[in-house]
Every structure is written in structure tokens, then in C-alpha cells.
Amino acid sequence: MIGKGKSISHASNAIDYAKEKQGAVEISRNNVIGENGKEIAKEFRVFQNLNARCQRNTISFVLSPSIPVGNKLTNQDFKNLSDDFLSRMNLKENQSITFLHCNKDHQHLHIFVNRIDYNGRAYKDHFISKKAQRIAESMVKARGFKTAKEIQIEKETRLRTQIKEAHSRVLLHNPRNIFEYAEMMQHLGIRCHLKQASNGKVVGLKFHIGKESIKASSVDRSFSAARLQKLIQQNFEHHIRYRNQYRKEYQRNQIDAHKNKFRI
Predict the structure, then answer these.
(1) N vs C: which end of the chain shows fewer Cβ within 10 Å?
(2) What pLDDT, on a 0 to 100 scale, did the predictor assign at position 144?
């Protein structure tokens, strides 16, 4: 699960965006009764006026479970996630409102919290996004879900295996350069995005499999653009040397066979 957070000064617009998003569902609210961003922001300002020095006085969080996990959760489960998150962030008593968004099967929460409490104290927002991610991962572990890091590691491991297998098969066909290599990989279902400098030299490479992608250097250090091109060149040169050597031996054998024929 991914957790992000930041302090904002435009609560009214942000809340309206979250509320009016197609398919948005209000999941929970605490000590606010307004029906739109303007009304809720006005309620927030009752306490924000107690601390005029704080300009970014609303905190916006995004809480995003992995797609497989999110698809299994009910609205009540998402409410529990929101409540638990705010409790662990020590923001449970502050005014707040939470919306659930569904984007192409990817369900996630938008949480808006008044940064100023009922005593006029501002919540410390130093490294708040890192704290939100840390809290999100602790919630995932408590529920037995996979963390965002674990899911990323599984994805990269799977992609590495597919790419290395295709890579080995392509090298057997002796591509002459990285462009032929990319074309052969494409036939195996792996698209290579080549980043070229102004002089046409390939300086970067990224692999795409379906909707997923991974940098070449993340597959293996030997897959960096420079090292991969060197490997392709060496592989092709070895193929040429072997082919030439085979031809010479074949011609020599043919000559010897011809000589032996006349000796008989």
C-alpha cells in the first residue's frame, strides 16, 4: 500500500475535485457537515483562524492499496483503513473527510484533514509523506497484505526472468546491433524503448512487457545501454569468426576430398 501526504492551502478546490470525481464515494467524515469544498473549508477555518501563522493549514493524504487487495475491499473496509490511518498519524480528533476513488480498477482514498486542532495547534508536517508511507506499510503488515516494496520486488523479479530468457534466445540469432536486438525482442513480446542522444547514439534502454516496464540497468548491470551494445557487438563478431572458420574448414575438407578422389 502506498501512502502520500502534503500540506496544502487550497482545501476548497481539492475537496471539490475529490468529491466530484466520477464514481467518487464519501467514506467518512469527522466534525464537518458541509456538502461541498467551500462549506467544509469554511468549517476548517473556524479553527485555522486560531493559528494565522500557518498558511498551508490542510493536509491532503492519498492511501492506495495494491490493485489485487483494493479489489477485495468493501466500502466499510476502506472506512476502517481511513480511520486506522488517521489514528496512527495522531490525527483522529482533527476535522476530516475521506473519499474513495476508483480509477480503472485501482481504488484509493483521498483524505483531507484540518492541520489545526481545536486548540489552534498546527500538526507538524516535516517529512509527512515519508511518515504516511511508513504508517501505510505498518497497516499493511498488520493486515497481512503485501507492502508496496514487496509487490515491487515481486514485479521486478518476474520481469527480470522474462527479459533474461528472451535476451538469451535473441542472442542465438546474432543481432548485428541494438536496433536488430530490439526488433527481435519485440517478436517475443518485449518492447525496447531506446533513448538516443542527438548524435543517434543509444544512451538508455527500458523494457516494456504489457503495461509494466523496468529500466534495463535494473534487470542486471550488464543490461545497461553501453554494456548491452558491447555484448551484442562481441556476440556478432564471435558469430562471424566462427562462420568464417567453419567455411575455411569446409573448403579445406572439400579440397582434401577432391585430392583423395584422384589418388584412388
Answers:
(1) C
(2) 85
